[in-house]
Design goal:
Elements: H1 2-16, E1 24-25, E2 28-32, E3 37-47, E4 50-60, E5 64-68, E6 79-83, E7 86-95, E8 101-111, E9 114-120, E10 124-132, E11 135-142, E12 148-155, E13 160-168, E14 175-179, E15 185-191, E16 194-199, E17 207-210, E18 215-216, E19 219-223, E20 228-232, E21 235-236, E22 245-249, E23 252-256, E24 269-271, E25 277-284, E26 287-296, E27 299-303
């Protein structure tokens, strides 16, 4: 039996050519906090000298494995999250044969390592899925007003989306949506040389912080254990990748020091497993990456 498993794994690697997700851009990343399983879906990757959009889904649970590559249109910039132990994907951008972009608005669920279509919803740019207690939320940029982020609630019984709110951004920087440990829905976005934490459920917990430099295309995550946001990297005002790590809590921002760690990058992904934070991928000097790092106890360690 062990020989069969080893042989099957060898055949899988020979068929795909990769033991982990190929370096890509605008992929979707999600973490199941119950199991610390990381999922990576879709994105744009190089195929020879050409850029291609993929629909592969990989998970990392101590080792990488591809779990699905069918049932859903290849896409990038999708929303992805675990909700009640199931993986959901929403929307994003697809390419036609001429590489013209099409904005998607479909919701899928993964069952038995296959993507299953559920329903269509609102057309949104940069969609993000948030799992908050018993509700799956969809947050994305309005297609009619780039300064507006729309908030929708998914009704699992009727399989429909119900609009719940709108958030006005101060600029066109990236934004991040999450649920905190108190059951609040939160949207975070950049403003000048700072970060705005907009608590949609409890306005009294909203705040702004100032950083030492203006950055965009940063990575950010909310960590329940510390009830704080962690922000890494991005591009500064001189269009240079940075490697700063910030902890943001209760209206205060603290830059954390570390001896060594991941290279400066933008457009990476941060998630918060138990015991630290994980950083995946990103773009370093215009080059796509696929490395995985964990920050815990004041130190970065690369995970293979």
């Amino acid at each position: 039996m062990k020989r069969f498993i080893i042989l099957a794994a060898a055949c899988f690697l020979a068929a795909t050519g990769f033991a982990q997700p190929q370096a890509r851009h605008h992929e979707a990343v999600a973490l199941d906090r119950k199991t610390n399983v990381l999922a990576v879906f879709g994105g744009a990757e190089m195929s020879g000298s050409n850029m291609a959009i993929t629909n592969t889904t990989w998970i990392y649970d101590g080792a990488w494995k591809m779990v699905a590559d069918a049932g859903i249109t290849p896409r990038w910039g999708s929303g992805l999250n675990f909700h009640q132990r199931k993986l959901y994907a929403y929307g994003g951008l697809a390419w036609d044969s001429s590489k013209n972009e099409t904005l998607l608005n479909d919701l899928y669920i993964m069952e038995n390592n296959k993507w299953k279509y559920l329903t269509h919803g609102p057309l949104l740019e940069q969609p993000q899925l948030v799992s908050l207690r018993n509700t799956l939320w969809l947050i994305g940029r309005s297609t009619t007003n780039k300064q507006q982020v729309e908030v929708w609630r998914f009704d699992a019984v009727d399989r429909t989306f119900v609009q719940a709110d709108q958030v006005t951004l101060n600029n066109n920087s990236n934004f991040y949506a999450c649920g905190d440990m108190y059951g609040n829905l939160v949207v975070v976005y950049g403003k000048d040389s700072g970060i705005v934490v907009n608590n949609l459920s409890d306005a009294s917990k909203s705040f702004e912080v100032t950083l030492s430099k203006s950055i965009s295309k940063y990575s950010i995550t909310y960590n329940e254990e510390e009830d704080a946001f962690f922000l890494f990297g991005g591009v500064d005002g001189d269009r240079v990748d940075v490697t700063d790590l910030w902890k943001i809590k209760s209206g205060m921002a603290e830059m954390l020091s570390f001896a060594s760690g991941p290279a400066a990058r933008s457009s990476a992904h941060l998630v918060s497993p138990k015991g630290g934070i994980l950083l995946y991928g990103g773009v370093q000097g215009g080059k796509m990456t696929n490395d995985l790092w964990q920050y815990s106890g004041g130190e970065w360690k690369e995970k293979k």
